[in-house]
Specification:
Layout: E1 17-21, E2 24-31, E3 36-40, H1 51-57, E4 62-66, H2 84-97, E5 103-108, H3 111-121, E6 126-132, H4 143-152, H5 155-164, H6 166-174, H7 184-191, H8 201-212, H9 214-222, E7 231-237, H10 246-254, E8 259-263, H11 269-272, H12 274-286
Parallel strand pairs: 3-4, 3-5, 5-6, 6-7, 7-8
Antiparallel strand pairs: 1-2, 2-4
Helix pairs in contact: 1-12, 2-3, 4-8
C-alpha cells in the first residue's frame, strides 16, 4: 500500500504490510529480525504510538505492530462489530499467519484485553508479557467509568465521537501528563486516520465496550492464573487521568511477584517516556 500524504516518514519510517481479514484489510508494521515482539495498541491510537520502541528494538528483534480494524492505516469497515473479542480474533489471525513463535507481547489500553485473550489461549507461545496502563477485569463496579461508558454509548455519545472527534480532540490530550509533549504534528497523526464520521466508528465502539464488554473482561480475569506461566513486567504511568491508579494495585495483588516500574507520566507513557519504556522492555527481553 502507498503511504498517505499526511504521514511523516521521518516519524514513521516503516514499511507497510497488510493482512486480508474477512472484514477488511489489516495494516501492520514488521521491522527487524530475531525473536518477535508484538505491540498491541488501544484507542484512539494505532501502531504510530509504538514508533519509538520499534525504531530502537528492531535492531535486535522482530517488531510487529498491527493497526486494529477501524484504526490507523487499516480498513474501517462499516459492518465489523468492533468488540474487543473481534479485535482479539484478528490479532490471533495475524500471529498465526506470520507463524510467530515465542513472542513477547506488549499491550496498552484496550490492547490489554485484546492481547490477553491470545496470551490466555496460548501461554506456551508467549515468553514475556509487558503490561502498560490497561486492565483485564470487568469494569461494572467502576462507577465513573461505567457512567461515562453508558453515556457515550447513547446517541449523544455517538454524536460526540463520530461528529465531533471527541476521542482524538478531548481524550487524547487528557492522556498526556504534560500537554506540551502532544505537539500539533503528533496529534495530527492521531486525527488523520479518523478524519470522517465513518472512520471514527471504531473508537466510539471502544467507548461503549467499557461497559458492554464487562462479561468478556470478567471471563479473562477468571483465567488470570494462566498468566503465572509467563514472565511479566508492568510499566505504569502513575499520573494517568484516564485509568484510576488503583488499577495498578489490582495488578499488584493478583501478581505480587511481578516487577513493576512506575513512571511519572500519563496514560500514553510510550509517547511521553519513550526511552524509559523502551529500556524497560529491553531489560525484560535480556532477562
Amino acid at each position: 500500500m502507498n503511504s498517505p500524504k499526511w504521514l511523516d516518514r521521518i516519524l514513521y519510517p516503516f514499511a507497510h504490510h497488510t493482512l486480508q481479514l474477512p472484514a477488511g484489510q489489516m495494516h501492520y508494521v514488521d521491522e527487524g529480525e530475531g525473536s518477535p515482539i508484538v505491540f498491541v495498541h488501544g484507542t484512539p491510537t494505532w501502531s504510530f504510538v509504538w514508533r519509538q520502541q520499534i525504531k530502537s528494538l528492531c535492531r535486535t528483534h522482530r517488531c510487529i505492530a498491527p493497526d486494529h480494524l477501524g484504526f490507523g492505516l487499516s480498513d474501517k469497515p462499516e459492518h465489523f462489530n468492533y468488540t474487543p473479542e473481534a479485535h482479539a480474533d484478528n490479532l490471533e489471525q495475524l500471529i498465526n499467519s506470520l507463524q510467530l513463535k515465542n513472542i513477547t507481547l506488549v499491550v496498552h489500553d484496550f490492547g490489554g484485553p485484546i492481547g490477553f485473550h491470545y496470551a490466555l489461549r496460548h501461554p506456551e507461545n508467549v515468553q514475556q508479557l509487558v503490561i502498560l496502563n490497561t486492565w483485564m477485569w470487568s469494569l461494572a463496579d467502576e462507577k465513573r467509568i461505567a457512567k461515562v461508558s453508558g453515556f457515550m454509548s447513547n446517541s449523544i455519545g455517538k454524536f460526540l465521537y463520530q461528529r465531533m472527534a471527541f476521542s482524538t480532540k478531548v481524550l487524547l490530550p487528557q492522556g498526556y501528563y504534560q500537554r506540551k509533549n502532544l505537539t500539533k504534528d503528533i496529534q495530527r497523526h492521531y486525527q488523520k486516520p479518523h478524519d470522517s464520521s465513518v472512520a471514527r466508528f471504531g473508537s466510539w465502539r471502544f467507548a461503549a465496550a467499557l461497559k458492554e464488554s464487562s462479561p468478556y473482561f470478567a471471563q479473562l480475569w477468571q483465567q488470570r492464573n494462566e498468566l503465572q506461566k509467563i514472565n511479566m513486567l508492568i510499566i505504569w504511568g502513575e499520573n494517568d487521568r484516564l485509568l484510576p491508579l488503583h488499577f495498578l494495585d489490582k495488578w499488584q495483588k493478583a501478581f505480587p511477584d511481578t516487577r513493576i516500574i512506575k513512571l511519572k507520566t500519563g496514560h500514553f507513557l510510550q509517547e511521553e517516556k519513550g526511552s524509559e519504556v523502551t529500556e524497560a522492555i529491553r531489560e525484560v527481553l535480556q532477562s
